[in-house]
Specification:
The chain is an all-alpha fold. The chain has nine helices and no strands. The longest helix is centred in the N-terminal third of the chain and has 25 residues, at about 30-55. The model has no long low-confidence stretch (mean pLDDT about 85).
Length: about 190
């Protein structure tokens, strides 16, 4: 609403040519074929997951429910949920390879591996960042600095004897400072 009522009218009318690439607005026959292949692969993969997670009480479907918890028969704490990341990966690979085969951009397994390597190579910087962030959080959890700051800060605020408004403002500032050192959301 802010964009439509306030920001956009201030911009004025646009005068110029729209730079639209015609190749991006329509799909080629190869891309359409790739999308059909991807849809079939997604339906087959989804159907197999559905069959593997159906309730075991449905005896008229042979072999159904083998990814459920063998003792209780539920999906909670089951092999399916334990391997959900692997299933997401396999689903993405199946749909991607099916699209590539249908569109003609993938001809052999070497191209599949090269495509995976190209996609994963962009994650290098992120992986390094996450590694150091995880180390930082782990050290603060190990040293209990977050809890120490919280307890000592609360004692300090109590000792200051502020009135309600100043106490609330100082509590907010202290909470902002403590959040820098505390990794756990439940501890916050």
């Amino acid at each position: 609403m802010v964009t439509e009522k306030i920001v956009e009218p201030r911009l004025g009318t646009y005068e110029g040519e729209a730079d639209i690439d015609e190749d991006m607005t329509t799909l080629s026959p190869e891309e359409e074929k790739g999308l059909r292949y991807a849809l079939v692969a997604a339906l087959l993969f989804g159907g197999m997951l559905l069959w593997a997670t159906l309730p075991m009480t449905w005896e008229f479907i042979p072999g159904a429910g083998f990814l459920r918890n063998p003792e209780t028969g539920v999906l909670l704490r089951s092999p399916f949920l334990s391997a959900i990341v692997a299933f997401i990966f396999l689903g993405a690979v199946c749909v991607s390879v099916a699209y590539g085969r249908g569109a003609g951009t993938i001809e052999n397994d070497t191209q599949v591996v090269e495509g995976m390597g190209k996609a994963i190579s962009t994650l290098g910087t992120y992986t390094v960042l996450v590694f150091f962030a995880a180390q930082f959080v782990s050290y603060f959890n190990w040293t209990n600095l977050g809890q120490i700051f919280a307890v000592k800060g609360a004692e300090g605020l109590q000792a200051l004897g502020f009135g309600p408004i100043f106490l609330l403002l100082n509590f907010i500032l202290l909470s902002m400072f403590i959040n820098l050192f505390m990794g756990s959301a439940s501890a916050k």
